[in-house]
TrEMBL record:
Organism field: Micromonospora echinofusca
GO molecular function terms attached to this record: ATP binding
Protein name: ATP-binding cassette domain-containing protein
Domain ABC transporter: from-to ranges: 9-239
UniProt entry keywords in alphabetical sequence: Antibiotic resistance, ATP-binding, Nucleotide-binding, Transport
Signal sequence range: none
């Protein structure tokens, strides 16, 4: 489709309904190559549904997704070489150790086993998972599961990373580690797009932001464009709306 060649990820007219209820109502988005892109939205906004359609995990009712010009749904083999995904809820084969899981991912991607071995050792080391070499992923903590998910997404050296809530349930030390790795990845020419509802993380990391609410993109642009002179939280609350407490509710809680 014209106009989708230059973006690292281009979404056009994505729509998804579940049981007649619209979850994503026509999302158009361009994630510029080399950007650190935050997809912000409240609970239930449609972030996971949008990203799942963008990476070929959930078939859209309408619309499509292109990665560096390659059609994710029309030419999945070529497109899937170019990106790595860390889905939410971490759907991993968790009866394996971290090293085994990486070896399995490498095999699935048809990678040279020596390269897989070398990269897996490096990734487990950098992500501070090397000590857990005998632990099954099912027994990992939530933060460790995020980290092994990120390692799986990085293993084949993708040009785009798509991460659903990468900082959810992650302690500050692991979060800092993940941030560092993502920064290095973008510094080296990669593109990251991730979903979050944590303002501070997005404000700190991202060059570009989109605010998704009720299944549509409400604001999009560079962090500066979207935020202006205000805090991202102010803009987010204004865009997404929400009730303001009058102070009279829950009066029975005060003594
Ligand atoms: N498999 C499904 N079946 C039915 N409804 C679904 C399904 N997946 C998502 N939904 C609905 O679609 C809407 C968008 O959900 P989605 O998970 O994409 O939002 P989200 O922005 O990722 O939310 P959160 O931040 O809470 O993870 C919600 O109303 C949700 O209940």
């Amino acid at each position: 489709m014209t106009g989708t060649e230059h973006a690292a990820l281009a979404l056009r007219g994505l729509v998804k309904q579940f049981d007649g209820k619209v979850a994503v109502a026509g999302v158009d988005l361009d994630v510029p190559a080399g950007s650190f892109f935050g997809l912000l939205g409240p609970n239930g906004a449609g972030k996971t549904t949008t990203l799942s359609m963008a990476v070929g995990l959930l078939r859209p009712d309408a619309g499509g997704a292109w990665v560096l010009g390659h059609d994710v749904w029309g030419d999945p083999v070529q497109a899937k070489r170019l990106f790595g995904v860390m889905p939410d809820g971490v759907r991993l084969f968790d009866r394996l150790t971290g090293a085994e899981l990486l070896a399995y991912h490498g095999l699935l991607r048809g990678m040279d086993p020596t390269v897989v071995d070398q990269r897996a050792t490096e990734l487990l080391d950098v992500l501070a998972l090397a000590d857990a070499d005998r632990t099954l992923v099912v027994d990992y903590s939530a933060g460790m599961k995020k980290k092994i998910g990120l390692a799986c997404a990085l293993l084949h050296g993708p040009r785009l990373l798509v991460l659903d809530e990468p900082f959810e349930a992650v302690d500050p030390v692991s979060a800092a580690l993940i941030r560092d790795i993502l920064h290095r990845y973008v510094g080296g020419g990669g593109t990251v797009v991730f979903s979050s509802h944590v303002m501070e993380v997005v404000e700190r990391l991202c060059t570009h932001v989109a605010i998704l609410a009720e299944g549509t993109i409400k604001r999009v642009g560079t962090l500066h464009d979207v935020r202006g002179d205000r805090s991202l939280e102010d803009v987010f609350v204004e865009v997404v709306g929400g009730r303001t407490a009058t102070g009279e509710e829950l009066a029975w809680l005060s003594r």
